Structure prediction request, 455 residues.
Amino acid sequence: MLYRAHLLSPGAPTRLDEVVDGGLRVDAGGRILAVGPFPALAAAQPTEAVADLRPFWILPGLVDLHSHLPQYECVALDGLELLPWLETHVFPAEARFRDPEVAARTAAGYFASQLALGTTTSVAYLTVHAEAADRAFQEAERCGIRAVLGKVMMDMHTPELLLEDTAASLAQSEELCRAWHGRDGGRLQYAFTPRFAPVCSRELMAGLAKAADRHNAYIQTHISESPGEIARVAELFPEARDYTDVYAAAGMLGPRTLLGHGIHLSPAERDRIRSSGATIVHCPRSNGFIKSGIMPLRRWLDEGLSVGLASDVGGGPSLDMWGEMAFACMSSKLRWAERRTQSARLDGLDLEPALRARLDAALDLAPDPPVTPAEAFHLATLGGARALGLEKVIGSLEPGKDADFIVVDPRVPDPAAARGPEPPELVLSRLVYRSDPAMIRATYVRGRRCHALEP
Ligand SMILES: [Zn+2]
Prediction:
């Protein structure tokens, strides 16, 4: 099949590749065979079926690198910080997954919502319940989304309803990994999923690190999200140098490890994470919603850390990755503006240069330039693909990759669409800042249409 549309794909973090009258040739197995100007591709194979999608655009599907499927029903409940929010809203919602039917029903709505918003790769936490996890995988298999899922593991300091036996947690997780990791040609994969250090024993973390290694599976967990959480980790793991050291000591850090949040990391922790190849998953709206802080996105990128982007439902209020891109840009702008304001205040004090330099360092006033929509789009596509080691499979429109793409109507967020074509940076800026589900006309995963506004 040859799809005809305006093509837009991330080339590099600051470069967008576009083909105005483009063609995307996809084989029956859902692989991209060719990308380029439509007239040339059509002339090369004149008998091939053409799907003319003009005036819509084709973009690569989005990668949501961190979210909690069972928390879908408790999204957007305001008022609390991380630890009390978990106790009040999250644990009761997760306890309902002891009924596998609840899990299956929630998973169906959750994946359908992601596909409708243009997300083609869903990396998600489930609950401690093995049968519920199995049902969620079945639902992902059925609906066609690309998914990396894992049964949550927590064997200490946990409400009775969710508390696991260490050996049983390891055995059930490994069994699920055997059943699902690599299923359907790698469309479904497994992530060992210790919730975070405060609810996991050393034995559990060391055991799952070995199991993930044996199966070449992923590990996903949280790190350094809120000050209260960091203090709890210091209390529970007095032998550790810092939060990162807890995971490093367990053997959990590596290129297939996804660390959610990573807002308050020291330079030594960042060095260690970077050299391990692990990814920091930025969840900007969740960080705002739970009042955790503003992750210094520009700084982490400049330091060469692997960074991806995610919705973190239910800490984040929605599965919409366009909203996450917008908030990633806006929170980095607010961070920049706040630092400029503080610098101007210090300028007014006329301080000795040495004292001023110490204050600048203590208050972390280095001006990090804000992140652009093109960079946020890169994080939500190729950045996420790289974090998963799938940069040769998904993340952009390139021959040889799987045909995970979305059909977008750029007129929806444009109040003056009649004016005609604009540069791709401007179009993307509107898609990001004025996103609307009505702009996602259709979503394809490996060539299969998994969502469409019209039948
Ligand atoms: Zn999370």
